Amino acid sequence: MMAAAAASAGQDRDTVETPSGKGRGDENFPVGSWLIRPSLRAHVHAFYRFARNADDIADNPVLGVGEKLRRLDRMAAVLDGAAGEDAPTAAAMRASLAATGTTAQHCHDVLRAFRQDAEKRRYRDWDELIDYCRYSAAPVGRQLLDLHGESRDTWMASDALCAALQVLNHLQDCAEDYRRLDRVYLPQDELAAAAIGVDALAAPVSSPALRRVLDRLLDRTAELVATARGLAGQVAAPGLRCECAVITALSARLLRRLRHGDPLAARVGLAKRDFLAAFVGGLPRAMRR
User: Mean pLDDT score of the chain, rounded to an integer?
Assistant: First the structure.
């Protein structure tokens, strides 16, 4: 793994980006699917690639903190108009913003989150974790809504959905994040209340105490999903409304899988039947707006 990351980090001396190879197909939710208006899909994909490449820099196990920050700052500079082709997804995102007239703030917000990832390895409590989600996850939904010209009244439900997806992803990857990056998103106060430390994540299976922590976090995430269920009904664009309904349904299904699965023993993910069920169940509800 380290050798592969080193090769990725140095694969092209002319770029600051270190793509991991992950793409839209690796996500828990559709990214710019056929439900999105065709004229906007390329812009949705541009934002995803920008955020994905910034995330890959922050998660690169070979780069030091200073080098990660330098590369993320360079992406920000190119996004804002600096000359150079060393950050291609940032340059493509700049072109997308110019074409659509959308704000660059959402891009800068995710860069802020990835700078935080480069430096911060522990989270004190739930509120601190949700504050991180405000920058790492919420801008994704806000960008999509802004592209469609939706009212910003939708942001509260969208932020809840994006935070839920982010926390669920943290729970999926809690063992890998700890073992590979020494990064723990599980709030420290929850671990302390269960009388365990972060080293509980090094075990091959979850202890009863860690299971209680995971279930407590899933309870709080379920509250976010409940808030997110109001999103689709607030969205005017039919395709986006359907995509929001499907993604909300997927978040609920992933939450249920994590209730019954152990992320330390194996990664708990969605199956093809989950995506099918979310489409079949979510689309009719969205069309009844």
Answer: 91
